[in-house]
Specification:
alpha+beta
Length: 428
């Protein structure tokens, strides 16, 4: 009974630490603003809202808690030898990196930077003797890098699961400027989850464990305590060559590979400390490689969301719309409407007027096979059945090809950096 009460007391104290930590609320604010920007962009481009700000934020928070509980349980088995000074330094490094690029908020970069700092202290021992740097020396020198690498690995494995589970639903259709200046369709895939971590750390006179964590160390015999540590995980991708489902599958697969490699490096560096700088460098380089491979993959494939000569390509389908009821999907091509061939939006509207009560479509799916769908039309239905078609020269707005990465300041100050007006529509 006393042991159970001690654990409940530790959990309550850790939960209070989390609720008093401003970084957790900063993560929530970033997520809320992300979905607000997404809604504003959808209204600007399509005059319709595809996602709900509060609903998506709530799902992100709930998913983040589920991921945090899972990560905390895994890390309880692995073990985390963290010092409070080290955690504060990691938060500071993350805050600085976020000012450079929003995507650098990933823990992999902060842990990699900390590993390089520790290697620098080992390479130049005189740095430890600098006056007034005692707190920094403690945070760097006493940081247990293998357990931090393991934490990065676990978070990325969980991120891969969340991307595969929710990534497709979090995709937003966009109009992009292609390499030759022609407008093409595509998707911005993104997801961010605030993850509350409750880590077991060694503490003299703390709780005893019925198991022995892998990274236990000599201090673990004295006892353990719980420490709350907020983290933010997420991804952002842009695709013009793949369906959202296929792109998220590729992204999640790479995250699984990355997480597995970092976990192996964590175990190796536990037994061979000289590998710590190597693991730190690889943690950063391989994370950047994930981005490079994705961009290279896009450039090597032809754009998928462009109109075919024999019909109109579907970019997206509004939820609960007539098109969704008929089973139309992104990437399919509308060939005929009510028996009439359609190659422009104007021809689509004219063909739909041929029958005010019924609509029959001939569609070519992604496998090149024809399928026929039909539905009765009702008052109040979307004028395009709820279809978002790939852009043509009449599209009013698009995202520039050389869109710059967002800094945190730009994230707060702009709804969408890089959104441009199509000058061709002004002369029409």
């Amino acid at each position: 009974m006393n042991l159970s009460m001690d654990w409940l007391k530790q959990l309550a104290e850790a939960l209070l630490q989390l609720l008093l930590n401003p970084l957790y609320y900063i993560g929530l604010l970033l997520i809320l603003l992300q979905y607000r920007r997404q809604m504003a962009l959808e209204r600007k481009l399509f005059h319709v809202k595809l996602h709900g700000m509060l609903g998506e934020t709530w799902r992100a928070v709930l998913s983040g808690w589920l991921a945090g509980i899972a990560a905390s349980l895994v890390m309880a088995v692995i073990g985390a030898r963290l010092q409070p000074e080290t955690v504060l330094l990691l938060w500071g490094i993350t805050a600085v990196l976020m000012l450079v690029r929003a995507r650098l908020a990933c823990l992999a970069y902060a842990v990699g930077a900390l590993g390089l700092l520790q290697g620098l202290y080992e390479l130049i021992p005189s740095l430890r003797d600098i006056n007034g740097m005692g707190w920094l020396k403690t945070a760097v020198v006493e940081a247990d890098m293998p357990s931090l690498f393991a934490l990065v690995a676990v978070l990325h494995l969980l991120e891969g699961m969340l991307v595969r589970w929710q990534g497709q639903r979090l995709s937003s259709p966009l109009f992009f400027e292609g390499k030759r200046g022609k407008l093409i369709g595509g998707y911005h895939l993104h997801g961010f989850w605030p993850v509350p971590l409750f880590l077991l750390i060694p503490a003299p006179g703390g709780l005893t464990l019925p198991w022995t964590p892998f990274f236990y160390g000599d201090a673990a015999a004295a006892g353990w305590t719980l420490m709350a540590m907020p983290a933010l995980i997420g991804f952002t991708e842009r695709t013009v060559a793949f369906l959202p489902k296929h792109k998220t599958e590729r992204t999640s697969g790479r995250l699984y590979i990355y997480g597995t490699i970092i976990l192996l490096l964590a175990v190796a560096s536990e037994y061979v400390p000289l590998l710590v700088p190597v693991a730190a460098i690889l943690g950063i380089v391989l994370h950047e490689a994930l981005i490079w491979v994705s961009r290279r993959e896009e450039s090597n494939h032809r754009p998928l969301f462009v109109h075919e000569r024999n019909g109109l390509k579907i970019l997206a389908v509004l939820p609960n719309s007539p098109a969704a009821v008929m089973g139309l999907e992104p990437g399919e091509t509308i060939y005929k409407v009510n028996g009439e061939k359609v190659q422009t939006k104007e021809q689509l509207h004219q063909a739909m007027r041929l029958s005010s009560a019924f609509c029959r479509l001939e569609v070519v799916n992604g496998a090149g096979q024809n399928k026929f769908v039909s539905r009765a039309l009702y008052a109040g239905d979307h004028h395009q059945l709820g279809l978002i078609l790939c852009p043509d020269s009449d599209a009013r707005y698009y995202v520039g090809e050389k869109q710059r990465e967002l800094t945190v300041a730009a994230f707060f100050l702009s709804r969408w950096k890089g959104l441009r007006k199509n000058d061709q529509t002004e002369s029409m």
